[in-house]
């Protein structure tokens, strides 16, 4: 070595190289391991290879190695001197930064590796800053400085969970943390000393996860950008495909004339047409010089501070014109009203270029008119609103539009500042504006949380800016029990803004939005989360905030759900803010500017003097009413009382009535006469219970009248007894009159809809519940009424609950009448608790009754007894019927496929029986099974005697001695409806199993004439058996005394909500067990009887025990309308309905009120609009009612009647058997072909029904049936449509929209051929416009296929695209699809671009089954809230459906809508008004007929 003088060569020869540690030459030498000897530290052996040494130590010195490892791994820092001698202590010697001396090193320290990494990355040396952790431990902050920019320094904290025992160890572990952060993908863990490897593994895995999350977040951002770009592309396509609204000069002249007619009839409160013409004469022609302003106009400099006027000037209007129109309309006119006026009156040359260019396609002559002015309150509300996109963006958080507009105006349309003020107004928390502009550093807690949120929520979280976030989550609607929502999933979005450097030590600005929750719920959620947020300070809180909101909604307090929100904090001192009532900030508060809105909720009449609803209590001119009889003098009253007393005494002794007196005395109620009279006399309210047939309905009114007559107060006794059904009122009135030996209409009378029989002598009046309700709703007090008896109170219909509410209110105010509640099965305690707060404790009387036991059989036993087998399925799956007197075997029932989920355990149960049982489980009526049971009863009792079906039954053996077994007892069959009754009657009358001469088949339902109904009480001659087929009226309302056998289908039709069609209709449902037992009890009136229940054992076991109140299971639109009419907006409807005996859910009321506002039946104050005043008198779904009203206004009543009637039944008119589907489709197209251009499923219904009706008129019922069978139509649906048409036409006649003769002709099954009501019945545009009026917002946007062209001889020709390329979009559900059963399924183009639907169902996809292409003017005139975007030339409905149109056209359409509202006001005052004579209606019809061309 001495011969080598060069130092580097000497090191090379000695195989010694520098590691670079310690900054180059300062580091200690490292011996090259190649060819170097490795002595064993525990013995004399020397190894040339390190691997052999390690294997030797492992095999020979295992114990020494374990001891050394435990010492090294104890976590105690080893001094430098000990480190130099490490080979003697286990073979581990660590080289650290600054280590001196040569020798052997087994590992490098983490600090040394970090120093080497910094040099490679051209960074300065790491800086270690130690921090004292808890309990004497240390943690470390490591900074890796950048050479040039401090902002690029890398800072890493060693988490406290890894704190070290010593400072040196803390620095080493801090170095591990840094390397895991910056080089986690490297293999440093294998190189570190053993004590640092576990820390590396933990931190590296975390770093890797963060990196992957970061990559995923970048991908999410890219995907979000792609989605936004695609969304923008779609919106552009939508804008490109917007339909242009055309209004020809001829149509415009008609519209302007109609508007002028409206303004001239506006009254003195509206500026007259002529005065405006003279006052504004300078505006009609352009002027180039400054003429003096008319008197009363403001000076030119008056635009200072007039923000709307300044904005108009900025848009391009001349300052002089703006000042002139401000002088005409007054200082209260808002920007939209000013714009409307200018667009209509200025010549096109003076319009701003943007508006003029959008108006060139439709020249408009200048007309002299003014902007209609509504009442001051409405005007004040409209003045606060501005037309700016920011309004909608802020209102989605639940804030009121008026308040939003006001604040936006005060902050110069600064949306961020406006949101700060709204948030402060709601929560009392002030947000610093500087936070909006601040952005978090890359290594801040907010950036860490951003990565975590992106990893957790993926596409559900977006970051509109570095300091804001939008996080969306979904809650199931069933998890919000206090809100009744029409969706399954509720989407809630948290928006957090103002996230600055101090986050999470400071709370950001937060807001919540949701398309499914009402505004007051959104604000309450924001307020609650704000109060909760201090708990999350210092922690990542975005996830906690959205979780807190979900928990709040799940436990939503009932008072908040009902709209009784918590108090807002004190509003900020800014004078531009006004504290608004929480209850007034609701979703429907946005109305149309410049003249109100129609037919959407709001005050429909918008002309001053005409805009106020007349109300339902106003006396109507033209309605023929009976003059009020003059009051009797005291002497005349005394004479009448003596006359009644003599008549009663004569009746009590007249031998001709002895038999009737004997019958009355045998009733159980006669034994309680004295108790009943005394109890009612001593109390204001009484509850009477008693089994059916005990006599309470007939005897209690007579007891009261007889007691009053006996005491000389007969004239003062005026009893009203309500019944739930017309048939009950008629039957009871006839029965009581018969018992008194009188004719109906004398002392005993009745009143049902369209039929009344009473006189001045009437003292007991039976009426339906609805008649008494309408009397109270119309403002007629119960003056002169001494007793109100409410019978069958247990049925708990909506009408019944409303009547109880009104009677309770009356009991609070007056003591003039007494209330008696009567029922067979009522829970008396419930009614006692309801009335007790008003009248004190309510006595409960029970009238005992007696019924014989009834033996009950279920369908399995009936099958075994009768040996019945199911026949082969009939044509159409139950929709068809065999014609009368044609062939044997009768009509066949509806059948199901051969499948059953339940194994029926019975001896003779074969495949046919299982099929029947499966049908019974699915509410299919087994007509053939009923036929077999009737035949079995008749045959067995005629052969083996009347007791044959009771033999062997223990109950019968106990009662045999006292039971009089008579033959020929009546059989009572319970069916759900009139159509099913008629079908069953025809089947039995034609049955070969039953001798028709030995039976008398009698139907019983409410639609029958009174004479037909009375036949069920007739006594049959010997050898003839009575079979009564009835609805549930025979359950409690009507008692047939000789019934010994009951056959119960256990089905009934109840009013329910059809979610697919979004309408209320009668639906088939299982009855409750309580109702079924009532039905069975009808067979035990005269002797032990039998009851066959056509339900399976499993179905009977699972049937509900009691029928829930109707108010809890149906939509409440009709109830809300009635309550709104009664209380006229005095208190919110939700609060008023809480007073019902069973309060509906708050969400249920909210949904009903929202629907009524959408329809236009309620205004924003929840008071009736003119349209609502009509609909309240139409007992049907509000949408159907509105459609019928507009059908009369558009003079297309007949087809609209057909559509409404068919949809109310709810079953498809067209049948499609699997085996004959192609043939059925061909027949449907053949019927629909004359209306194919309408592209309407509803017109297909009209075509089919019209053809059937014509065939039926020519050839009778047989021809009608043959037509149905030939054309694959449902005879049941046709008959139901015929019946509903009759009912709906009668209702329209009652309220004056059609003549009585028209209703009579429709009732006869014929077209009325009325030139007034049906002038446009053959024009489908009018029919589809009426559909749009009724069913809006059930609207679909159509994306037609792109245009295609083919080469022809003369150039190119446009051709239709493919039907499968047509796309439909619903506002709430997004993309939907046409059902293959729709006639529009194969249509390739829908010219108007919009469709109205009445039937939507969701299976694998969301399908639309019944839809019609709606005309453009049908949408614009009868759609939702119309706004005009003047500068853009766009008309917008509900800020969703957009149309290209000149501003002038938009303003004219708004005036037409206002005119329709004014017409409805007039119709209320004059039901005989001929709407067809109105210029407004004629103008609308002209537009619809020509589509504007």
Written account of the structure:
The model is unreliable at 18-29, 66-90, 267-302, 357-384, 433-440, 565-628 and 873-910 (pLDDT under 50). The chain has 52 helices and 39 strands. With 1493 residues, the protein is of the alpha/beta class. 44% of the residues are buried. Strands 17-16-18-15-19-20-14-21 form an 8-stranded mixed sheet, with helices on both faces.
Largest sheet: 8 strands, mixed
Please, how many helices? 52
- Structural class, by secondary structure, is alpha/beta
Report low-confidence residues grouped into runs of 5 or more. Answer: 18-29, 66-90, 267-302, 357-384, 433-440, 565-628, 873-910
Our measurement of the CA-to-CA distance between the termini, rounded to an integer number of angstroms, reads 112 Å
Mean pLDDT: 76
Helix content: 40-55%
Radius of gyration: 43 Å
**Oligomeric grouping of the chains:** single chain
Number of beta strands? 39
Name the strands of the widest sheet in spatial order. Answer: 17-16-18-15-19-20-14-21
Share of β-strand residues: 5-15%
What is the global morphology? globular
